[in-house]
Write a structure and sequence with these properties.
Elements lengths: L4 H9 L7 E8 L5 H11 L1 H6 L4 E8 L6 E8 L2 H8 L2 H10 L8 E5 L7
Antiparallel strand pairs: 1-3, 1-4, 2-3
Helix pairs in contact: 1-4, 2-5
Amino acid sequence: MSDHPIAALVRSKVPNPAQPFALAVELQALDGRGDEVVAAIRKRGSIGASRKEAGCAVYDISRDLDSPDHFVVYEIWRDLPALEAHLATPHFNAVAGVLGDLLIGPPVVRVLTPIEPPG
């Protein structure tokens, strides 16, 4: 089975996959379809389900007030295996399947590591 593209991206960037990292993911809906993106996410309960995953520290999806078809997903994961488990969940795949028809293109994913880890 091949790597999920997001997992492969993280693996290529994060020096130690056993350490926490964050993702900032930008989603751009087709013109005027932002409300459908919100409805698709809410209908599938993906935010709450993601937040309950053992390896998830933060999972937020925010809508740009100046551009309502633009969204930013901010996630912090304990490690790469936690993200890989998330990418395989039914709730992630259900939303990803629907959003593909509502977005202008693939998400823009930025991989972030803390300057100074907590603790």
